[in-house]
Amino acid sequence: MVVTPIKNSELDVLQDLAIRTYSAAFAHKNKPEVIADYYEYAFAKAHLNKQLATKDSLWFFARDDDNIIGYLKLNINQAQTEFREPNGLEIERIYIDTPYLRKGYGQRLIDFSISKARQHKKNYIWLGVWEENPEAILFYKKQGFIITGTHDYDMIAEVQTDYIMTLDI
């Protein structure tokens, strides 16, 4: 697997992958109107383009051979969605496309995130994970993350609760 920065010219690919992976992970656990409203906001091209241009937000594609198999969004400094502590790095999005799940790619993206955190001289990584996503919670626990709190996650049509999980590095 190779991890490469996402270019502005790859916006359509990112949008398609983001919708596909989010749908696979969450559509069956949410009301259709909640998912539709969220997609309309979070994965709109204008919104994604603005996020790609955000200072201190780092976007990456995971690639295997010629295939884009996942993506990762890291935030540092003021780009973090919460806390904004100078010694933290946020994993805001980490998704692997369905055919590539359970093949070690998620672990490799966590390892990549750790290396980026160290490169930016951060002491810990944090992320939010939906309390109704036990598979992801277990995955992060296996990587050494611990639950350190909760926060609200705005799905536009409703607010859900995420666990905050952190990993000291």
Written overview of the protein:
The longest helix has 16 residues, at 11-26. Helices cover 35% and strands 34% of the residues. The protein has 169 residues and is an alpha+beta fold. It has one domain (2-168): Aminopeptidase (3-Layer(aba) Sandwich). The chain is globular, with a radius of gyration of 15 Å.
Put the structure in a nutshell.
This protein has 5 helices and 7 strands, in the order βαααβββαβαββ. It has 169 residues and is of the alpha+beta class. Strand 6 and strand 7 form a beta hairpin.
Give the topology:
Layout: E1 2-5, H1 11-26, H2 32-42, H3 45-52, E2 57-64, E3 67-76, E4 88-96, H4 105-119, E5 124-130, H5 134-142, E6 146-154, E7 159-168
Parallel strand pairs: 4-5
Antiparallel strand pairs: 1-2, 2-3, 3-4, 5-7, 6-7
What is the H-and-E element order?
Answer: EHHHEEEHEHEE
Basic shape:
globular
Low-confidence stretches: none
**What is the fold-level CATH name, i.e. the topology?**
Aminopeptidase
Distance between the termini: 23 Å
Task: Output the radius of gyration.
Answer: 15 Å
How are the strands of the biggest sheet laid out side by side?
1-2-3-4-5-7-6
CATH superfamily: Gcn5-related N-acetyltransferase (GNAT)
- Total strand segments: 7
**Portion of residues within helices:** 25-40%
Specify the structural class. alpha+beta
Assembly type of the chains comes to: single chain
CATH class: Alpha Beta
Which percent band covers the strand fraction? 25-35%
CATH architecture: 3-Layer(aba) Sandwich
Characterize the biggest β-sheet.
7 strands, mixed
Instruction: Give the mean pLDDT.
Output: 97
**Number of discrete domains:** 1
Give me the number of helical elements: 5
